[in-house]
Amino acid sequence: MKMCVIGAGYVGLATGVMFGKLGHEVTCADIDGSRVKSVNAGKLPFYEPPLEKELAKLVRAGKLRATTDVVKSAKESKFIFLCVQTPSLPSGRIDVRPVKAASRSIAKALKSCSDFKIVVMKSTVVPSTTDSIVKPILEAGSGKVAGKDFGLCMNPEFLQEGSALKDSMEPSRIVVGSTDKRSGKELMRLYAPIKTDKIRTDLRSAEMVKYTSNSFLATKISFANEIANMCVRFGIDSELVLKAAGKDPRIGPLFLKPGLGFGGSCLPKDVKALKDKARSEDYNSRLLTALLAINESQPAEGVRLLESEIGDLRGKRIAVLGLAFKGGVDDIRETRAVPLVTSLLAKGANVVAFDPMAMGNFIKLMPTINYASSAAECLKDADGCIVQADWAKFKKLGKKEFSKMKNAVVVDGRRCLDPEVVERAGAKYLGIGYGKPR
Ligand code: NAD
Ligand code: UGA
After folding, report:
1. How far is the CA of 247 from the centre of ligand 2 (A)?
2. How far is residue 246's CA from residue 11's CA, in Å, rounded to a whole number?
3. Which of 32, 149, 179, 263 has its CA 20 to 30 A from that of 435?
């Protein structure tokens, strides 16, 4: 089957590779010529090694290609997946301009085709967007009727960066929202080889499932941070407490890891968008407001721990390890490293930073701080260190690296290090939510 994904980002490329692996002929259409060039060379425009390996195989086999001709690729496809970005505006509302532009391109394609094509909305959009923004653009631009001349579905994406391919091939569930029975049924058939729970809904419910999921994940993280902030003040290690609480199947063990707050391209954006959407319908979500406020103050909790040990930060050399929004990716969208570094600089610290993959992206954002070429170089002569992203390789840091610090104080902002290992290496360990019995 021929299909196209519009938007060669995380979601578009993971979707494209997944369908390519299932044997379909995939075109990835993007307005960004450099992305298209990169995909056609078998290279991802971001760091996601397992996805890149499969992408390269499909490109070599002629099963997947990229193009800047969005209209032509839509014309030639039976399924058209809309996967463009929906970033936050300053109000928290999503910016639907990319969705509108992509919908206009699809409408042009629909106008000149006589076959029944199915447009699948995969971008995260607030309830009613597919129905009240995408559908009218498609109908007006094509002169055709949704449900009669073409199909329209909403199929939210739940992948995590760092495991994009695995999450696409083995999703926890597939949600298919549609208004007409035919397109929902055909999309379900397309997903038949993926064995997981499949839920059929209307368009708005499918949109709301995505916001419910991300808001709940964000709630869990902020709740864990709230408990952790209390534990550290009570002289209790929150790790054990949260682990024991998470054993209750009604609570669950995942997404209860305290840290410097949640970043990334989606959790902050989606919680703000849902809050804004609720406000537009005269509902004030106190829960979403509170969890965002907790998230905003978490980087300061890391700085507070550092100050509790080394005092005034003026003129002190502080090493920041990890700049990506989490370990294992090079994505810096909404990374907590920005408020963290900003706060350290405001306190007069001399910041030196390192990240295994995200440094190139971060330098563009904060060009004036110092950067090191390795974690060891970053730690050398530092008065203190804060771990901001949970890269696996930071766990291997030991005496060799910590002994090079002027003052071996390590604030574990992601609870990813082993306190005993750090202390055996001669460094002082302080972690978010790590309180030792007094
Ligand atoms: P991204 O920014 O990585 O990629 C979007 C791509 O769309 C870009 O390459 C851009 O050039 C292209 N684009 C923009 N306008 C276009 C147009 N008119 N025609 C063709 N291409 C166009 O975005 P992403 O991270 O893949 O996210 C896409 C959507 O999926 C968002 O709504 C996001 O909230 C949602 N989502 C993202 C993730 C994730 O892990 N990144 C997971 C689940 C859902
Ligand atoms: C998140 C969701 O997990 C995906 O299901 C969703 O599809 C995606 O957003 C999306 O809609 O884009 P992702 O952005 O890749 O995926 O990142 P997560 O792994 O969820 O981490 C987000 C942030 O929360 C990171 O900063 C991470 O460090 C932090 N986090 C995560 C914690 O602080 N504690 C935890 O226990 C888990």
Report:
1. 21
2. 30
3. 263
**What's the distance, CA 303 to chain centroid?**
24
**pLDDT at 56 exceeding the cut of 90:** yes
pLDDT of 438 strictly over 90: no
Q: Determine the average pLDDT of the residues in 251-275.
A: 98
Look up residue 145 and give its two tokens.
Answer: 């009727």
The reply to whether ligand 1 has any atom less than 6 angstroms from the CB of 266 is yes
The finding on whether 369 has its CB within 6 A of some atom of ligand 1 is no
In this predicted structure, what is the pLDDT of residue 436?
81
- Percentage above 70 pLDDT, the chain: 100
Q: Share the mean pLDDT of the chain.
A: 97
Tell me whether strands 25-29 and 409-412 are parallel, antiparallel or unpaired.
unpaired
Tell the residue number behind the tokens 């206009």, with chain if given: 104
Which of 17, 30, 85, 330 most suits a substitution to test ligand 1, by most atoms within 8 Å of the C-beta?
85
**Average pLDDT over every residue of 322-340:** 98
- Residue of 294, 288, 293, 258 whose CA lies nearest to 273: 288
Using the mean position of ligand 1's atoms as its centre, give its distance from the Cα of residue 123 in Å. Answer: 7
- Cα 384 to the center of its chain, rounded Å: 29
Question: Widest CA span of the chain, in angstroms?
Answer: 75
Strands ordered across the beta sheet of 409-412: 370-371, 350-354, 317-321, 384-387, 409-412, 428-431
In 272-424, which ranges are E strands?
Answer: 317-321, 350-354, 370-371, 384-387, 409-412
Give, for ligand 2, the residue of 157, 160, 219 to mutate: max count of ligand atoms closer than 8 Å to Cβ. 160
Strand pairing report for 317-321 and 350-354: parallel
Task: Give the pTM.
Answer: 0.97
* Other CB atoms within 10 A of residue 388 CB: 32
157 in ligand 1 pocket by Cβ < 6 Å?
Answer: yes
Cα of 260 from ligand 1 centre, angstroms: 26
Give the DSSP letter string of 121-183.
E-S---TTHIIIIIHHHHHHHHT--BTTTBEEEE------TTSHHHHHHS-SEEEEEESSHHH
The pLDDT tens digits for 349-402 are 999 999 999 999 999 999 999 999 999 999 999 999 999 999 999 999 999 999
C-alpha span between 263 and 234 (Å, rounded): 27
Phi/psi zone of residue 434: left (φ > 0), alpha (ψ -120 to 50 degrees), beta?
A: beta
Q: Which ligand is nearest to the CA of 160?
A: 2
Q: What is the pLDDT of residues 209-245, one digit of tens each?
A: 999 999 999 999 999 999 999 999 999 999 999 999 9
